[in-house]
Write a structure and sequence with these properties.
This protein has 315 residues and is an alpha+beta fold. It folds into 4 domains: 85 residues, no CATH class; 101 residues, Tetrahydropterin Synthase, Chain A; 44 residues; 72 residues, no CATH class. Helices cover 56% and strands 23% of the residues. It contains 10 helices and 10 strands. Strands 3-2-5 form a 3-stranded antiparallel beta sheet. The protein has a 3-stranded antiparallel beta sheet with strand order 6-7-8. Strand 6 and strand 7 form a beta hairpin. Helix 4 packs across helix 6 and helix 7 packs across helix 8. The longest helix is centred in the last third of the chain and has 43 residues. The C terminus is likely disordered.
Length: 315
C-alpha cells in the first residue's frame, strides 16, 4: 500500500529553504565558505528529519521493523521513526476488502462440470500477523478461497448448488475463515455470483422441467375428469328417480342442438318415442318448424297504416 509522502516533502523543502536563507545572509555579512557549509548542513538535516517523519492514513497501519525485528505498529496520523535503523516494509489497509475468485470446469458430486464465480469480503484484524506470518496475504487468501470453492463443489450435488446458494456461501465462509484466521484475517461473507452449467445439460434440464409441468397438467386434467364423472353420476341418480326431469332435460338438449343452425339431428328411435315426438315425421316437423320460425322472423316487415295501426306481413 502506498503511503502519504506530501508532509515529509514539505518539511524537507522548508528546512532547505531556511538553510539557504541563512547561508545567503552569512555571505552578505562575512566572507568565506561558511554559507555553503550551512546550506549543505541544512540539506542533510532536511533529509534526516523528512525521513523520520511519517504519516499514515486513517485506514492504514504501518509495520515498523527495527534492525530487522518487529518493533511496533504505527498510525493512523503522524509518527516518527529512526532513519536508517527503523524500516516500514508494509502499510496495511484495515478496511473491508473484496476479492473475486472462481472455479472452472469443476466436477460436482454427481460428476457435472460447472463454472462458479464468487466474491469474498474480508478484513485484516491483526496487521502484525498479516505482515509477518504470511509472505503475501492477498495472494494467499485468493488461493485459499479457490481451493475451498473447488472442495465444496466436489461435495455438493448440482441440484443443491442451484437451489441453495446461501448454504454454499455459508460453508465457504466457514472454511476460508478457518484457513485465514492464523494470518490475522477475518472473512465477513462470501457471495456466490453465478453457476454456469454446460449448454447440453441446460437444454436437458429445460426439457425435464417441461415434461414435469406437462405431467402435472395431465394429473390436474384427470382429476377434473374424475370430478365431472362424479357429478354426472349424481345427476344420473337424480334422473333415475325423476323421469319427468330426465324427459325435460332430453328435450332441452335436443332444442339446443337444433337452434345452432343445425338442419339434421340423428337421435336413437327409443329417445324419440320417449320424448313423444311422433316418430320420424315428428322430428322432421320439429326441425322444419324451428327453421321456418327463424325465416319468418327475418322476413317480417312493418307496414304503417294511415290510421297508425301496425300490421305484420309475412313474406
Amino acid at each position: 500500500m502506498k503511503r502519504n509522502s506530501s508532509f515529509p516533502m514539505l518539511v524537507f523543502f522548508v528546512i532547505v529553504a531556511a538553510g539557504a536563507l541563512a547561508a545567503y545572509a552569512m555571505r552578505l555579512f562575512s566572507a568565506g565558505f561558511q554559507g555553503l557549509w550551512l546550506l549543505g548542513a541544512s540539506v542533510v538535516v532536511a533529509c534526516v528529519v523528512s525521513s523520520a517523519i511519517q504519516v499514515a492514513d486513517q485506514w492504514s497501519k504501518a509495520v515498523v521493523l527495527r534492525l530487522g525485528k518487529f518493533h511496533s505498529l504505527k498510525g493512523p496520523g503522524l509518527f516518527l521513526i529512526i532513519p536508517l535503523i527503523d524500516t516500514i516494509p508494509y502499510w496495511i489497509d484495515i478496511r473491508v476488502l473484496t476479492s473475486s475468485f472462481k472455479a472452472e470446469k469443476t466436477l460436482t458430486k454427481d460428476t457435472v462440470p460447472v463454472d462458479v464465480d464468487a466474491v469474498l469480503f474480508w478484513k485484516i484484524i491483526d496487521p502484525k500477523k498479516a505482515a509477518l506470518d504470511v509472505a503475501d496475504y492477498q495472494t494467499a487468501i485468493g488461493w485459499a478461497s479457490q481451493t475451498a470453492l473447488r472442495d465444496v463443489i466436489g461435495k455438493t450435488m448440482l441440484s443443491e448448488m442451484l437451489e441453495g446458494r446461501d448454504k454454499i456461501s455459508g460453508i465457504l465462509q466457514k472454511i476460508i475463515d478457518e484457513r485465514t484466521e492464523p494470518w490475522g484475517i477475518n472473512v465477513i461473507s462470501v457471495e456466490v455470483k453465478d453457476v454456469l452449467i454446460p449448454p447440453a445439460l441446460e437444454n436437458a434440464m429445460s426439457m425435464q422441467a417441461q415434461a414435469e409441468r406437462e405431467r402435472q397438467a395431465r394429473v390436474i386434467l384427470g382429476d377434473s375428469e374424475r370430478q365431472v364423472a362424479e357429478s354426472f353420476g349424481e345427476a344420473a341418480k337424480t334422473y333415475a328417480n325423476n323421469p319427468v326431469a330426465f324427459h325435460l332435460r332430453a328435450m332441452n338438449m335436443l332444442y339446443e342442438g337444433l337452434k345452432q343452425n343445425s338442419t339434421i339431428v340423428i337421435v336413437p328411435s327409443s329417445a324419440v318415442e320417449t320424448m313423444e315426438l311422433g316418430g320420424l315425421a315428428g322430428m322432421t316437423a320439429l326441425t322444419m318448424g324451428l327453421g321456418q320460425d327463424r325465416s319468418i322472423k327475418a322476413k317480417e316487415i312493418v307496414a304503417e297504416e294511415s290510421n297508425g295501426a301496425g300490421k305484420l306481413i309475412s313474406a
